[in-house]
Design a protein that fits this description.
CATH architecture: 4-Layer Sandwich
Number of strands: 12
Number of helices: 8
Mean pLDDT: 97
Largest sheet: 6 strands, mixed
Structural class: alpha/beta
Radius of gyration: 17 Å
Strand content: 15-25%
Number of domains: 1
Distance between the termini: 33 Å
CATH superfamily: Metallo-dependent phosphatases
Shape: globular
Low-confidence stretches: none
Helix content: 25-40%
CATH topology: Purple Acid Phosphatase, chain A, domain 2
């Protein structure tokens, strides 16, 4: 099975459309979205519609949970909270019902998917450092061969031995059976690794290979829609140009 795995589209329709086209080019068999289809961007309904139509599985992200009324987000900073309120008022009843029914995790054999750390799914903890990945060592035996996560908007991969964690620094690598892997797949719609291109990944569970990919999209168009929506912070559009 060739999986196309993506996360954190954040209502950025231009980025999501190009990511889906790129998956077609790479001839993936199954699409999996690891959450946060809403939040920050200007087109939450359109992005929800695309993900619902194309992804075999969609995981609940923290922004999805907030918009769907499944978590308290009163502690979020003002601009993020206002965007979530705005999206909650915009979503169709079908898309709201869909968000409210999304699972915290999905497993297909030894391939696992969740939005944040697998240690406590409902807390949406980050993993983007070796120390954070090491918090998974106590549950090593319960991890899948590969666990795919999102949330940090960073492209990161870690190989977990039974007692030590190693960062994998190549864009394409093989999965070795003696390790458990935690792979953060980056962000489609709000990259934060100083590369403004949309992130996507491909995992082949037969060949046991994984690859980080990027694709260009019309950043100006996506940003302008945010600037034109006075209920969204201009910063959400400006940061698209720098990938931060």
């Amino acid at each position: 099975m060739r999986y196309g795995i993506f996360s954190d589209s954040h209502a950025n329709l231009e980025a999501l459309q190009n990511v889906l086209r790129e998956f077609e080019r790479h001839k993936v068999d199954r699409l999996v979205c690891i959450g946060d289809t809403v939040g920050y961007g200007a087109q939450p309904n359109e992005c929800c519609n695309l993900v619902r139509t194309n992804a075999r599985h969609t995981i609940l992200g923290n922004h999805d949970a907030a918009v769907g009324g499944r978590m308290d987000y009163s502690y979020y900073y003002d601009a993020a909270r206002q965007a979530l309120d705005h999206h909650a008022s915009q979503l169709s009843s079908e898309n709201m019902q869909w968000l409210r029914g999304l699972p915290y995790n999905v497993s297909e054999g030894d391939t696992h998917f969740c939005h944040g750390s697998p240690v406590d799914l409902e807390q949406f903890e980050y993993i983007f450092t070796i120390d954070q990945a090491a918090t998974c060592l106590p549950i090593w035996s319960r991890l899948g061969q590969v666990t795919f996560i999102g949330h940090s908007h960073l492209c990161k991969a870690y190989a977990l031995g039974r007692e030590r964690v190693y960062e994998v620094i190549t864009k394409r690598f093989e999965i070795h059976p003696e390790f458990r892997y935690i792979i953060s797949v980056g962000s489609v719609g709000q990259p934060r690794d100083h590369d403004p291109r949309a992130s996507l990944t491909v995992y082949d569970d037969v060949e046991r290979t994984f690859e980080f990919l990027r694709v260009e999209y019309d950043i100006s168009a996506a940003a302008q829609k945010i600037f034109d929506d006075r209920r969204l912070s201009d910063s959400f559009g400006a940061r698209l140009f720098a990938g931060v």
